[in-house]
Specification:
Distance between the termini: 15 Å
Helix content: 25-40%
Largest sheet: 3 strands, antiparallel
CATH architecture of the largest domain: 2-Layer Sandwich
Shape: globular
Radius of gyration: 17 Å
CATH class of the largest domain: Alpha Beta
CATH topology of the largest domain: Bacillus phage protein
Number of strands: 8
């Protein structure tokens, strides 16, 4: 996963593995060339929507705060707690766990079960969130 380039390549992996998008290819006589697209599952119905904007490139999850926020929201929907931190010298890190969080603003929660979150470092917080989310879902599926 660390060899995946930040930007469209990492975004496509996040779309598939974290967001639940399903890759496909659109082809036909009206198209000059085959085009990559995605089926996006509905969160409220048993349907899918076809996404083929900008030649099948998913939203910029790994390069914008808005995109990274969508990843955090999705991980929360999947039952993950999260942590985002700055390790100093501008090195952000993020991590996810399927346990309940122990602390909020450094105050222990009554009866909380301790959890371990191993944050992943990256040059930007958006990239750290995406790589940590991928690591968490890959560990879940292993």
């Amino acid at each position: 996963m660390n060899d995946v380039t930040v930007g469209p390549e990492l975004d496509a992996l996040v779309a598939e593995k974290v967001m639940g998008w399903r890759p496909t290819v659109i082809s036909g006589a009206s198209l000059a060339e085959d085009r990559k697209a995605w089926f996006i599952p509905s969160r409220t119905q048993d349907t899918e929507t076809l996404w083929s904007e900008t030649k099948g490139i998913p939203p910029p999850y790994s390069t914008t705060w808005e995109g990274a926020g969508l990843v955090v929201e999705r991980m929360q929907e999947l039952g993950y707690a999260y942590m985002i931190l700055d390790r100093g010298e501008g090195l952000p890190a993020a991590g996810f766990s399927q346990s309940k969080p122990v602390r909020t603003w450094n105050a222990p929660l009554a009866g909380a079960i301790p959890i371990e979150i191993t944050p992943l470092d990256a040059p930007t917080v958006e990239e750290a969130i995406c790589r940590a989310a991928l690591a968490a879902v890959e560990n879940r599926d292993a």
